[in-house]
Amino acid sequence: MTLEPLRTRTTSEVFRALGVLCETPHPSHATLAGALDLGTPPPAAEHTQVFTLGTVPYAAVYLGKEGMLGGDAADRVAGFWRALGYVPPAEADHLAALLGLLATLGEAEAAELDPARAALLGRARAVLLWEHLLTWVPTFARGVAASGSAFYTDWAALLVEALVAESATLDAPDALPVALTGAPGLPDDVDTVRDLAAALLTPVRSGLVLTRVELARAARDLGLGLRIGERSYVLASMLEQDPVATLAWVAHRADAWGAHHTRDAETLGPVARFWAERATTTAITCRARRDSTEEVLSDVR
What we know:
By secondary structure, this protein is mainly alpha-helical. The chain is 65% helix and 0% strand. It has 15 helices and no strands. The radius of gyration is 20 Å and the shape is globular.
């Protein structure tokens, strides 16, 4: 899926349509999907599997230190809305809201006759794009692709392509965006496997996204019992059952994520390098924990 067939659509139309398609399914989505050359939207159950039970489309989940909704990451996005003179919507960091705002700013800039005001709108668009979208959307999109949904995999690919194309019209930042500056990494030590699982499942700390689908597949492949519950509970259970195999699996996934992020560095610069470093650190950390755990277990035997 590429932007090539969509040249007759305005950029704002494309962003708004992409945003709407990640919201709760509605009959009107079929028309939007067709306009984007994405085919027929899947049933509501698939949308739930991808966005509610899998990769939720909120910036805070990928940029927040706890990997959860709300918190400082969500407040930062709400503050950006206020800085522009808007009342933040209830879900200010939801992808659909941010893409809608990007479309609105683009339209306002194109219609503005005053060069100074147009320049201000252009700077606001650049901040929104580089600080509040490209800092997390490529990582989120790769998580969507791991969901197994063909429709939403194509949707995610088109989303990233559209954002990268938009970034080419704006000056890229030389420094790391504020959203990533000072973001905590993996803890040096953890008290419980649940704490370790929570850290590994926090994207900004680990540099990767592990979905429910992937965890279930890994548990099956490793011959482990699959517990029903939130992802941190599932991963903690896997670590308890077979820490050596589970840590090796996470390290392998981190390698793959690191390679993806590294390839993105050509277009995303410091942002992609940040995510690549986080994933590489996770791979190294997990292998070190695996080796030390294996040594302890061999001594016990």
